[in-house]
Amino acid sequence: MMISKIVKRKVSVLLFFWFWAVTLPDSPLAARPSVDVLLLKNGDKLTCEIKKLDHGYLYVGLDYVDGTVQVDWTKIASIESSQLFVVTDEKGDVFVGPLSSLKTAPSTDPDIRIRHGQSEVTIQKSAISSIQQTEQKFWHNLHGAVSAGSNFTKSDNQSQFSTNANLDYVKQYWSASTEFQSSFNGSVSAPSALRRDLSASVMRILNRGNYFATGIADFLRSDEQQLAIRTTLGGGLGRILVNRERSRLYVLAGAAWTREHYTTTSPPYFNSAEGLVGTRLEYFRFKTTNYYVMLSAYPSMSDPGRLRFDGKTGVKYEIVKNLYINFSFYMNYDSRPPRATTKSDYGGTSSLGWSF
User: Fold this and answer.
1) Strands (E), 117-210
2) What is the pTM of this model?
3) pLDDT higher than 70, residue 124
4) What domains are defined for the chain?
5) Cβ(310)–Cβ(331) under 8 Å?
6) What is the DSSP letter of 43?
7) For range 315-327, the mean pLDDT
8) Rg (CA), the chain
């Protein structure tokens, strides 16, 4: 009976996520007129909506094509748009404004001019690593994805569910992101296991574009580690080491505060001051495949000798349009838990999702 109730609750959550995924991408809030102009090096001209430049490909929408079209950034001879974009170069410098190309020799890539008010800046086209849409209204700057997966085996009446949702907000010097991950395993022959992880971060680019300040928050529930909730709040400084078309790498260091609530121990609460060292690597290949690895280490300052470690990695493969399949793996490790609980928890999920 307990398994049946949990399954029904999980199914309702899955239906909610799928409803969000299907309806939100069609929202008129995200629509822009298809008035941007691209001239390709082979002479073709496209009147379109420029959506983003990501990992060496410019994503555009065409009135006569369902979905987005990926255009090789190196094949573009000129670009013209009166819309607002956030443009980031390889150094991490960020600029906002409409885009236009400066005329150069036919054998060379044109420079891109970005106008903002009465000022303008010129960047080499090959030095631009990303372009994102931006608007004055808050809702127009949101981007994200949602995915869900499930599995059932008759032999032991075992059910498995996983959900994942992320939302990003991008402005000129600020960016924020949040991600929710949930997994559930239930069986009549073994205790059920629930894991939920809600994380959020905010980043502020400093005057020198390859440095940034960041703040993080994480809320983890793990039945495997007997954690009712682990709250982690922290911040620090970081540096962007690589910011190219097909790869991105940054590192950060700082401090964090953690409060843990255990379910089967007494006293149930434990507070800890910790250091923070982290890194994130993204790599893009074959236009449709995105790899990422994120690692964080928390050496305790109030309990010397204790070390916590969080790791996430995944592969995202676009099937068609904005529909993708996602494979991910997570791991949590605690060298010396303050209570007599399991030191580690790890697992993997596969899911089908939609990005917007």
Assistant:
1) 119-124, 128-133, 142-153, 158-170, 174-187, 190-205
2) 0.69
3) yes
4) 2-24+140-355 (2.40.160.40), 32-134 (2.30.30)
5) yes
6) S
7) 82
8) 23
